[in-house]
C-alpha cells in the first residue's frame, strides 16, 4: 500500500472519530509552546501529554531556534497568548552526525539521499549536485546540552521576546522517553 493511501485511510478513520473538536478555540488552551526536533521518534503529543487544542508545537531539524522558529514563537505569544516555552532537543539527533562543511560537500556531490556509514554520512548518488548548500547555515549540533543552552539564550535575548516568558531547556532521551532538564538553560530562560 502506498504511503499516500495509508495517510488518506488513516484520515478517514480520524474524521470518523473527530467528535467535538470543531469547537476548539484557536489559541492554545494550555498556553504554552514547544520547540523540538522533527525526528520521527519524537511525538510531543505523547511525551508531553498534549491533546488537540492544548499547545503549539514548532518543529524543525534539531529543534533549533532558527529565525523561522522564532517567527513562530513570537506569533505564538503575541497573537495567540502562550506564556511559557520549552526548547527540547534529544539524544542521538541526526544533527550531531554532520556539520555545515560536510552538508555542503554532500549536496555539491549529488542531491540524492546520502548513506550513514561508520564514518558518518557519505554521498552515494550520481551528480550533478549544487554548491547552494554551502550558503546555508544548517544549525548542526556538536553537544546536545550546549545546543539547548545556545537556543534558550538566543530566544531570551531576542528583541521581540518579552522577558516575562520563561523558557525551559530539555533533552528528550530516545532510549527511555524521559525529558531531562538542562538546568543551565532553564536558569538562563527564567522569567524576569
Ligand atoms: Zn533530531
TrEMBL record:
Domain of life: Bacteria
Keyword list, A-Z: Lyase, Metal-binding, Zinc
Pfam families in the cross-refs: Pro_CA
Keyword Zinc in annotation: yes
GO-annotated molecular function: carbonate dehydratase activity; zinc ion binding
Cofactor(s) needed for function: Zn(2+)
Cofactor descriptive note: Binds 1 zinc ion per subunit.
Catalytic reactions of this protein: hydrogencarbonate + H(+) = CO2 + H2O
Record: residues binding Zn(2+): 37, 39, 90, 93
EC number: 4.2.1.1
Known function: Catalyzes the reversible hydration of carbon dioxide to form bicarbonate.
Family: Belongs to the beta-class carbonic anhydrase family.
Record protein name field: carbonic anhydrase
